[in-house]
Amino acid sequence: MTAYFLQWTFVEDPGARFENYLAVQLAAACSAWTEQGHGRFELFYLRDQDRREVDFLLARDLRPVALVEAKLSPADFPSSLEHYCRRLDVPGFVVYPKGPIRREKGLGWTVPSSAFLERLIAE
């Protein structure tokens, strides 16, 4: 079981801290979008019986809209993220603290957290 803390700064491991930080930001975005009347947004963890997992699945009215994987540095598009992007027909994002923005296999993006979080705000 994965647990996230609102006080993400208390998490000692840098990778877990970044993932926790991203979880808090995504949960806040889901709450804001729901309160603004854009639909019922929820945040999920995704793992199947073959142990393929993705850190976050964003859903609107129980329909997947995006997949997000947290990493500490720019990384290749994970095979589990690629699998679920194709299966669910939604974009995937590998989010990391800083680095370049890259389009990945027509399935999504690798993007620094500043650019990713800036685009979460609904106007």
Describe the model.
- This protein has helices spanning 14-35, 79-88, 113-118, and strands at residues 41-47, 53-60, 63-70, 92-96, 102-104, 108-112.
- The chain is an alpha/beta fold and 123 residues long.
- It has a six-stranded mixed sheet, with helices on both faces.
- It has one domain (12-118): Trna Endonuclease, Chain: A, domain 1 (3-Layer(aba) Sandwich).
- The protein starts with 13 loop residues before the first helix and ends in a 5-residue tail after the last helix.
Q: Enumerate the strands of the largest sheet in spatial order, edge to edge or round the barrel.
A: 1-2-3-4-6-5
Straight-line distance between termini = 34 Å
- Large-scale geometry: globular
What is the string of SSEs from the N terminus onward? Answer: HEEEHEEEH
Q: Examine the secondary-structure arrangement and name the CATH architecture.
A: 3-Layer(aba) Sandwich
Summarize the structure in short.
With 123 residues, the chain is α/β, with parallel strands linked by helices.
For this entry, give a set of tags.
globular, single chain, 123 residues, six-stranded mixed sheet, alpha/beta
What's the layout of helices and strands?
Layout: H1 14-35, E1 41-47, E2 53-60, E3 63-70, H2 79-88, E4 92-96, E5 102-104, E6 108-112, H3 113-118
